[in-house]
From TrEMBL:
<dbReference type="InterPro" id="IPR052158">
    <property type="entry name" value="INH-QAR"/>
</dbReference>
<dbReference type="InterPro" id="IPR002818">
    <property type="entry name" value="DJ-1/PfpI"/>
</dbReference>
<dbReference type="Pfam" id="PF01965">
    <property type="entry name" value="DJ-1_PfpI"/>
</dbReference>
<protein>
    <submittedName>
        <fullName>ThiJ/PfpI domain-containing protein</fullName>
    </submittedName>
</protein>
<dbReference type="InterPro" id="IPR029062">
    <property type="entry name" value="Class_I_gatase-like"/>
</dbReference>
<feature type="domain" description="DJ-1/PfpI">
    <location>
        <begin position="8"/>
        <end position="176"/>
    </location>
</feature>
């Protein structure tokens, strides 16, 4: 599972992150931590460890900073309007490439995929994003094999999900992949998640 003694999941937060992109996967993964024999650790972090204001005004205080978060097995990169500035921030993209080099599994929710693409992490790979952001994704990296239908796309060491609530589905998939489908079903029951399919 990479470095460290136990499974560690880091959820990045930043100004303008979409609330459910952050707290949807966090809810799933934290519920998993409470049920799992693997006892994964789920932490939130911002660039400098300071609080952030999400896209709709929710303020979050993360556990730590990017410098202090330590080795991760899984990175969860949310979307939201704040991704547009990050996708053009050279220092942030360098940081993300560095995280990718040491993190076995990098995931994104919604327009988080735009930042992954800007860092070159989706080049030539299948991926998905928010339904209204596929043109932006193609403009950033036309080599990305965009999947406009999937709720999430698992391409091995990179997993991307579609918009907002799709991050919950992706996180449940991560639980099934990292532990078992049985535990994922237990998490789904614990959070009482049983959506009707979109029409």
């Amino acid at each position: 599972m990479g470095t460290g003694h136990h499974l560690r999941v880091g959820v990045l937060v930043f100004d303008g992150a979409e609330e459910l992109d952050v707290v949807g996967p966090y809810e799933v993964l934290s519920a998993w931590a409470g049920l799992s024999a693997l006892h994964p650790e789920v932490v939130t972090f911002s660039a400098d460890g300071a609080g952030v204001r999400c896209a709709k005004g929710l303020c979050l205080v993360p556990d730590t900073s990017a410098d202090d978060v330590g080795p991760l097995h899984v990175l969860v990169y949310p979307g939201g309007r704040g991704t547009r500035a990050l996708a053009t921030d050279a220092a942030h993209l360098d940081w993300l490439r560095g995280v990718r080099a040491t993190t076995p599994l990098v995931t994104s929710v919604c327009t988080g995929a735009l930042v992954l693409a800007a860092a070159g992490l989706l080049a030539g790979r299948p991926a998905t994003t928010y339904w209204a952001a596929f043109d932006e994704l193609a403009a950033i990296d036309p080599s990305v094999l965009a999947d406009t239908e999937a709720r999430f796309v698992d391409d091995g060491d990179v997993v991307t999900s579609a918009g907002v609530s799709a991050g919950i589905d992706m996180a449940l998939h991560l639980v099934a992949r990292l532990e078992s489908p049985e535990v994922a079903r237990a998490v789904r029951r614990a959070i009482q998640y049983d959506p009707a399919p979109p029409v």
